[in-house]
């Protein structure tokens, strides 16, 4: 038989963990905003906006969206980290394409395709195979 701690202790631990979680999300949000500011500063000082800069801003935006969803719903949709991974691979290909072999580019493109298919499977599962909360 399980021996559970008293309800008051369970509630206290749960509350502490919730505050730690919110603090962590706040730190991630602040760090992301600082990174956005640094990226914009680099673009302004160099007076050039490259595709890789825009893709980096998309990654930051996805991180903020993911944190915002977690703040509002208490859930982290699996799709958002996959989107971030897809954009990160795209950015990597964009930056390093000249030095990459053909097989590396094809492998990375296949990785993006696999991630996109994973998003489709997840979406299909959510729509066709819902689960109880």
Topology, pairings included?
Blueprint: H1 7-46, H2 51-73, H3 79-96, H4 102-128
Helix pairs in contact: 1-2, 2-3, 3-4
Quick overview of this protein structure:
By secondary structure, the chain is mainly alpha-helical. It has four helices and no strands.
Whole-number count of domains: 2
Total beta-strand segments: 0
| Helix-strand string | HHHH
Oligomer: single chain
Note the total helix count.
4
Mean pLDDT comes to: 90
Overview of this structure, please?
The protein has two domains: 9-74; 77-133. 81% of the residues lie in helices and 0% in strands. It contains four helices and no strands. It has helices at 7-46, 51-73, 79-96, 102-128. α1 (7-46) packs antiparallel against α2 and α3 runs antiparallel to α4 (102-128). The two termini are 26 Å apart.
Features:
81% helix, 133 residues, mainly alpha, 2 domains
